[in-house]
Specification:
Asp_trans; pyridoxal phosphate binding; Aspartate Aminotransferase, domain 2; 2 domains; alpha/beta; two-stranded parallel sheet; about 15% strand
Length: about 450
Amino acid sequence: MAQEPSADRRLSTLARHLLPSSPRRTAAAAEAEDIAAGTLESSPTMASQGSSVFAALAQAPEDPILGVTVAYNKDPSPVKVNLGVGAYRTEEGKPLVLNVVRRAEQILLNNPSRVKEYLPITGLAEFNKLSAKLIFGADSPAIHENRVATVQCLSGTGSLRVGGEFLARHYHERTIYIPQPTWGNHPKVFTLSGLTVKSYRYYDPATRGLDFKGLLEDLSSAPSGSIILLHACAHNPTGVDPTIDEWEQIRKLMRSKSLLPFFDSAYQGFASGSLDKDTQSVRMFVADGGELLMAQSYAKNMGLYGERVGALSIVCGSADVAVRVESQLKLVIRPMYSNPPLHGASIVATILRNSEMFNEWTLELKAMADRIISMRQQLFDALKSRGTPGDWSHIIKQIGMFTFTGLNSEQVAFMRQEYHIYMTSDGRISMAGLSARTVPHLADAIHAAVTQLK
């Protein structure tokens, strides 16, 4: 049996690789020898023991959304409830991996021909094709006319960022209007993409519903050609969506002013339980022949949170423009992350290409949506039975993962302190974080908050 090389031999071999064989002592070799001998004096760029070139850095605050989970994890209370996390939980409060996802992974694992080579810059071609069909419809004229450029991105966030940077480089308007309120990461993503971020009215605190009049007024006032961010369904954080008639009015107004739609679709099928119903707004804009951007995520609807699977699609005016758009998207992606990860996209493609697995996915998807709808009803009933002051019907009117409760930051802080219930300071709660066991505890906390703190 061969003996393990001694430490001295290993160091000697390493030195031969690192140091030049020439008898002339290069500057790099001299520095290496000086470091080894401990004779090199420290410089401002060398951290000595107990100091750092980054010593003056301030401690950054926790992310307002992800920081909720950090605080929750530190709480030793046995009755604590985390309603801040934007991820589905079972009735037992556990993360869920869909059965169909496990099946897809097993198929991939059992395929001996699979390798770990880099994907192209644009990602997995089959994934891109199937993702466009899922969001726009298999019979979409834009797809049949080859007017859609689709690239695989790092979930919804990455899709938004790539789209934002593409627009900052190539679109004649650099201002994007986002709804007020919106997902907390939207303004950061678009600002760092190189766009100027402004807002349009969306939510009416008085009705806890849509401020449709304010929305139309603000879009009417936006300069022609401005970019408008639209939530495809299940608006985050409010859970308030326009009706189909209201979407049609929005579409007509935007097209009349040449406003460019940029859709964010994080909840297709997860909101209502129907993949087609949750894309009605998007397909209305595609059907009129106009152009748009679409950021698509599989985090929620396939439970692929950590796999970071998403796509950016740009619906163009013609096939030749789509080809050029794709070529420029490559130039955005290449220096950013070079190419996307393989595994998650392969899972999605495996499920979407197989009709039997696709049907199984839709059943599991509807079961998740139905459980969230059930939590809405149970919470509403619990508040009603306690006689909690106020009209809480918005809980069952809103849609998707989140409910905008209408609780203020003081009431949220009270519920955290007294009831160990964690949510974002704006009163947004994740309905997927609730269960039949925790609904009474939350209802008690809300009742106490609104009766003791006005």
